[in-house]
Glucose 1-dehydrogenase
Amino acid sequence: MKTTQKLKGQAAIVTGGDSGIGRAVAIALADAGAKVLVNFAHNHDAADEVVKIIKDAGGKAFAFQCDVSKEDEVKAMFAAAIKKYGTVDILVNNAGLQKDSKFVDMTLEQWNTVISINLTGQFLCSREAAKEFMKRGVVEKRSAAAGKIICMSSVHEIIPWAGHVNYAASKGGISMFMKSIAQELAPHKIRVVGIAPGAIQTPINKPAWETPSALNKLLELIPYNRIGQPQDVGKLAAWLASDDADYITGTTIFVDGGMALYPGFADNG
Ligand code: BGC
């Protein structure tokens, strides 16, 4: 087997696959042989571009619009993937956003929007995925597991973040969500894992890297001294979804250049 085809024949759904980390994950999974539903919330053109990149490289993909916080839309997305590819083997819960605000000024809408997309969205998508995985069971020629769920978290599942309490709370929630369903689903041969990216160069954190002074300030938080690239996360997701990671479930892998190592303590404390 070519090392790049470890997901051959498997069908994947990548939420928020139209931009940033999700885009790189969709491309990396396709590169490893998976057929990919590239989910988007609003930007159809961007999702089509990801589909084109995958198809131009000889892969299979299609774009599908769905707001992951809406139960009926999530069900429709899974139905579309199953209709097209027969089943779903891999779910990457990637869709997420920030609505930043000082705590005392944060509106209920800012709070609810972030919790709905970042946390409830992972609940709705994972539930549909788990039902499909349990119904189908293991297909040995495809994977040792009946299915894989990857929950995109953040270093902010452990690092508190002033001015971003809705986001940090959603990511802290993902940590326990991921572990709890991993415990419940392991007997069904379903693996559930988290990925906690640090500062990855994407549109979500553009203000933190778009000027040299902002980037220098950001690098003070990254011992490895470079900003992350979406591919750093894409490659990890493809590996975690593959049988090379078959004994990994219920844990989170940090891909952050050391951001979670409390770098402020390197010369202090
Ligand atoms: C956030 C980014 C931030 C990074 C490190 C991510 O989860 O979405 O905006 O740069 O964490 O703080």
About this structure: The pocket of beta-D-glucopyranose is lined by residues 98, 154-156, 198-199, 204-205, 208 (CB under 6 Å). Strands lie at 11-14, 35-40, 61-65, 90-93, 147-152, 190-197, 252-255. Helices lie at 20-31, 44-56, 71-85, 108-136, 165-185, 212-219, 230-241. The chain has one domain: 11-202+230-259.
